[in-house]
Amino acid sequence: MANEQITREEVEHVASLAKLALTDAEADMFTDHLGKIFDIVTTLAEVDTENVKPTYSVTEMQTVLRDDVAVNAQQSEALLNNAPEHQGTLIKVPAILNGGAEG
Amino acid sequence: MDFLHTDIEKLHEQLVNKEITSVDLVKETLANIEQTDAKYDAFLATMSEKALAEAAAIDEAGIDPDNVLSGIPYGIKDNLITKDVTTTAASKILQDFKPIYDATVVSRLREQGAVGVGKLNMDEFAMGSTTETSYYKQTKNAWDQTKVPGGSSGGSAVSVAAGQVPFALGTDTGGSIRQPAAFNGIVGMKPTYGRVSRWGVIAFASSLDQVGVFTRRVKDNATVLAAMAGHDDNDQTSSDQAVPDFAAHLDGDIAGLKIAVPTEYFAAGVDEGVKATVRAGIDKLRELGATVDEVSLPHTKYGVAAYYILASAEASSNLQRFDGIRYSTRPENVKSLEDLYVQTRTQGFGDEVKRRIMLGTYSLSAGSYDAFFKKAAQVRTLMNDDFQKVFADYDLIAAPTAPNVAYDFGANQDDPEVTYMNDVLTIPVNMAGLPGMSVPAGFVDGLPVGMQLIANRYQEETIYRAAYAYEQATRLFEKVPGGKD
């Protein structure tokens, strides 16, 4: 991890995983910015974390169960109003298979 | 009217005595926002119709004499969802989003009679420390409009500091309440993680996000937090711990309070003027009867690194939901579902959000997970342990809130790491899920300095007691923006 640097190719790969398109100029900018941020985050390598448990949440609570009861159920119309396109009670999306060319 | 020289109790008295109606109070609040906001740009939108209807209903039913929030107007950070009122989190991607329910904090305050009057500007999805990443506008510091207001809850802090509202809600993931409170010379409280429901908060980093309160006065802050805290069935992480009446025992007596001052919070990089101001504040606490010792929180300097990995990882996951299907404007000429995702997100998110999504995605990806995400979570454990060692012997930690006072717009535009390092003194509190407050401590070059008070989990009362004693002894709230000394 020490001295690790992020490359332009890695930035482009990560952007594609995150469903983001980058222009050439943006790819350069984010490579520069993420490189600077890496200078900070790679300092963690200095810390001895042998046998240290990770903390992903600070709440002491365990899984909470409740009855599966529908509340405020009659709101599908209001919900659909936020969707860019809908037909009846369904949200419309573009073709998934791209005319059969993919997949 | 403005709220620079009053507090919630006085407003309540005026309402109970019928010197003013709730409708008139709301009308005057909206008129003042209309008049002053060209200067501050704190508000993204006002919700006048809804506010006036709620106020009319309260007047009709009569002000509740036992409920100090009855008929009191307030402002809402725009990442807290409000039924039928556009909620954007200051992102382009949510420009048309009209929620179909209220955040729990909003519905609880409404039950108490508080009237939301508008939505406040912020950094996009709460990612930033200056409110400059907002897609919509640039909020200005209440004391000097050439300076940043801090962030991410910049609009909330400025609206209270400038007297536009008696109180405002914000959220704090890495300092987003405390730092803008410090930059604007007001009281900003980030409660214990789990103290307040996150239901209806547009998620940034779910293990760190917490809703809190901005006020000019400590007691007002305690009142509002008590009104909205407590378990909520809709948020599994909200605690069932009893909520004390935080405002009940504010008597100015802090004799015997044990205060710890962490050496690392006065390290290089913290402005000398800020250090001197906060040192003087700590001396005042000692004069008031507290004992003060220096302690060490040795992992402080790794907080920023660990935080940016964890918060960005959680953000990259939380922000997956913005895919152009259920909300947001759909881009034109979309060729396929994949193309819809990519175009919606590419056009809808700003650079800072993209940067964090990419950092988070990288941290969680195979090959980086152990060295980044898991490593950061282990460092988080060590930071928690640091705090628990201190709280075994002390009641409260006192330190600066931010390394500096408010600075110029655009100062760190090309250096995200400089901006990120500014959060070094606020991040540890979120990492450990502790309550933390910024309370006004004085001025450097005419700009406010905040003192940060940190307690162990669920010990908000200790913070409020100390802050109240300090506020009463210093009366810094008497100095207002644009006013004379």
Automatic annotation (TrEMBL), chain A:
Function summary: Allows the formation of correctly charged Asn-tRNA(Asn) or Gln-tRNA(Gln) through the transamidation of misacylated Asp-tRNA(Asn) or Glu-tRNA(Gln) in organisms which lack either or both of asparaginyl-tRNA or glutaminyl-tRNA synthetases. The reaction takes place in the presence of glutamine and ATP through an activated phospho-Asp-tRNA(Asn) or phospho-Glu-tRNA(Gln).
Name assigned to this protein: Aspartyl/glutamyl-tRNA(Asn/Gln) amidotransferase subunit C
Keywords on record: ATP-binding, Ligase, Nucleotide-binding, Protein biosynthesis, Transferase
Enzyme Commission number: 6.3.5.-
Keyword Lipid metabolism carried by entry: no
SUPFAM superfamilies, per database record: Glu-tRNAGln amidotransferase C subunit
Reaction(s) catalysed by this chain's protein: L-glutamyl-tRNA(Gln) + L-glutamine + ATP + H2O = L-glutaminyl-tRNA(Gln) + L-glutamate + ADP + phosphate + H(+); L-aspartyl-tRNA(Asn) + L-glutamine + ATP + H2O = L-asparaginyl-tRNA(Asn) + L-glutamate + ADP + phosphate + 2 H(+)
GO-annotated molecular function: asparaginyl-tRNA synthase (glutamine-hydrolyzing) activity; ATP binding; glutaminyl-tRNA synthase (glutamine-hydrolyzing) activity; transferase activity
UniProt cross-references to InterPro entries, sorted A to Z: Asp/Glu-ADT_sf_sub_c, GatC
HAMAP family with a match to the protein in the record: GatC
NCBIfam families in UniProt: gatC
Any GO BP annotation: translation
Family of this protein: Belongs to the GatC family.
Subunit structure: Heterotrimer of A, B and C subunits.
Organism: Weissella jogaejeotgali
Enzyme class, spelled out: ligase
